[in-house]
Amino acid sequence: MPELPEVRTVVAILNNEVIGKKIKNVEIIYERIVQNDLNFFKDELKDQSIIKVEALGKFIIFHLTNNLILISHLRMEGKYSLLNKDEKNPPHSCVIFYFYDNTKLVYHDTRKFGIMELKTTYNYLTSKPLSNLGPEPFKIDENNIENIYKKITKNKPIKELLMDQSIICGIGNIYADEILFKAKINPLTKGKDISFEKFKEIVSISKSTLTKAINLGGSTIKSYHPKDGIDGKFQNELVCYGHYGKPCPNCGTLFHKIFLNGRGTTFCPNCQINYELKKAVGITGIIGSGKSECLEIFNELGFKTLSCDKIIKNLYENNDELKQKINKLFFYKALDKNKNKLNYSIMRQFISQDEILHENLENLVFPFVEDVLINEIKNSNYTLIIEVPLLFKAHLQYLFKKIIYVESNKETILERLKLRGSKNPLADYELYLKNNNFKISDNVIILKNNSDLNSLKEQIIKISKDL
Ligand SMILES: [Zn+2]
Asked: Of 62, 160, 234, 448, which one is least surrounded by beta carbons within 10 A?
């Protein structure tokens, strides 16, 4: 969806192309785009000329003679093309403005979500939709910033608030991800947890990011093209949006993606910390390294502990949405229909023969586990110690103030795997090693677990004093 920089680019092109043109007649092909009575729309626009075109947030505003204002919103896919009268209309043409100079401005929109509404200079700013808009980031200064900050201090994720056009207008999904990455703020952070100082920083980053994007003609993502054949260049400058799975330019940690209100949201789990969540300690390490032993010791020391294996088991038993999704993934063979129970032995059988299916199952389950973890951590008044076998693979670093990585030597692990009945301990070991790729950052504590239980206990007692 075009955001402020893209709309500005479209407006700059329209100002070059249509100023001074006089409308001969209007053809409405797709009626729902036009919010007025159709005949009124056509009659009023006939014989009027375009004086100037402006942008306000994501809206395009045509100023016409006779005090007319045409408000247009491109929504997902709307586009304008100026053509000669006899040229073929683009596919999905919705509204066509024919000019006296034998050219036509065609509004075309594959999704047909765009809107147009005719207003007057007297009412266009004081009636909906424009009366509902907050200021563009550029219009935020010392006179209004405290007022806007008040609207940000809500119990909602900051990303949602930044995209709320009634608070600040012009920022959508792409630029919200970029701005929050640059400000090192986790998109899930509640607005009420953002300090006034931090908000000032967000505003300043918004201004610089959007200015740079405007100068580069916006971002060409999927279907946004300011003009046929001309692409925006800002997509090359995007450092976070769309970079899921790629390394963060600041720290090398792989970008994580979650869904926030149905919108894909990318962030660095290491740089964009959510302080509200950073109360827990994660224990991870490859299979057979002794994570559960460590958790047990923490438990004995009086810590509140949680294990992801238990969370997953609970989800498998009680979460109907997940059960249905797993069933679908396993070709509708994983669910025992009468009892509405997952059949683990069938699932194991499938997985053992299909590594990609195993991977897909993990990717399906991770977000559910993530939701449970976020809730548990938020609602806990204590430091929770949580065993998360695939912490790094699932990009969950952002949930933990400290991460304990349990390490054992290869021989010890192979021995433990054999004891657990692994048929091919070496293959298991190598697979888990591959999944535990991580970058050592300041908050990772390495715990050696090769010898006896007493030495492990001693190390944990030492660590636990700082948690
Ligand atoms: Zn980073």
From this structure: 448
